[in-house]
Request: fold
Amino acid sequence: MKEAIYNLAFDFGASSGRMILSKFEDGKIELEELHRFGNEPVRVGNVFYWDTFRLFHELKKGLKKAAAKKVPISGMAIDTWGVDYGFIDKDGNLIGNPINYRDDRTIGIIEEVGKIVPLEELYASTGIQFMNFNTIFQLYADKKMRPEIYEKADKFLLMPDLFNYFLTGKKYSEYTIASTGQLLDAKKRQWDKELMERVGLRTDLCCQLITPGTIVGEFLEEVVKETGLKGVKVIAAGSHDTASAVAGTPFEEKNAAFLSCGTWSLLGLETDEPVITRDSFTYNYTNEGGVEGKIRLLKNINGLWIMQNLRHNWCEFESEVSFPDIIKASREAENKSFCIDPNDPRFTAPYNMMEEVIGYCQEHGQGTPKGLGEIAMAIYNGLAREYQTTIKNLEIIAGVKIPCINMVGGGIQDQLLCELTAKATGKKVVAGPVEGSVLGNVVMQLKTLGAISSLEEGRKAIKASFDQKVYLP
Reply:
């Protein structure tokens, strides 16, 4: 029997974060949650910021709890949401707090950049879905609106790279997270510096790209002193949380789609090469980098962020409710026909999600949803309808018949959402595991450390270790 291997996976979602201790032994993976915390953005004036230093403080609290376990920890990797970044000056200091992608400073920037570089040309190089918060548009906005910070910056670091810089002092850009920002040549898998220059962006801000599975270094001495952890290899896994989620998906069949379901819904296929065609441009699909040389051909869909905010507002203005309460109210709703478009900009970062859902239904001639259940059903129906459309277009773009959907992430705990997804898409839904991002993070660490030989072996270990539930259309 081989000795057990312990690793730490730090998974930052857009609404919460957690530190997980993994144990790999006899071909199976066990997970233990050591630390969990909320990730709540902060408004200062009219700007929506990430609470970056508090998040780093929570990361170190997790490391302290890991040290207290007194087990030999081999490696640690961080995965986070995409596109956002911090600027580092020549002295190595963070200048200007990272701004949340839901901030409205980039409204209208796509059109502005499109006048400089036609959007068809921008897509032909990057293969990335147009969303106003992509890194290219945020950098353009910073150049206009935070010029002193922009000009004083020496490098920009995307969020997982920034946290790893705080831990190790090493500056780099991991490929999967860099691919989210519409700054890479999708086919060459390198910074498209010619494109950046055409847009008027500084190319010297870019760090060296590294591939998933690269060992970055070890903790700085001050981190060792504060946390008590020493000799842990810091690994760049699939640093984008969706890249890790797809790596952690034990696909049921060939050409099965993945649906990483959390704050965002990421629905797509794993491919060997980017798919950049007239159809993929027209339907606005994205080609993000994956692990082991794969591409994630997918659609970004505003996900359970809407339901999370509905719950928050209902607790604030009406009465305390849990997510199971919302599911129960939805099943009991008198009128289940209400439906929103989850990608409507009004649902990006409103002050009151209840009012926005009701307002949408009224403005689109559906009447007024009454009570928690009818409002929630509008969200459920909107998500399910968007999944249906996305699957149909994905089959056209990729030229394949999708047999089923493998669903991972926290959203699979919502049985009603899983049922509606199967019904709307007409596809078998295989739900599980919940901790897709964490498990993809872990298997890439195990591969880097030589404990497994491939991603395929890691996925087999995941399937052997965690239950899945099937929903039929």
Remarks:
- The radius of gyration is 22 Å.
- The chain has two domains: 5-236, 251-432.
- The mean pLDDT is 97.
- The longest strand covers residues 28-38.
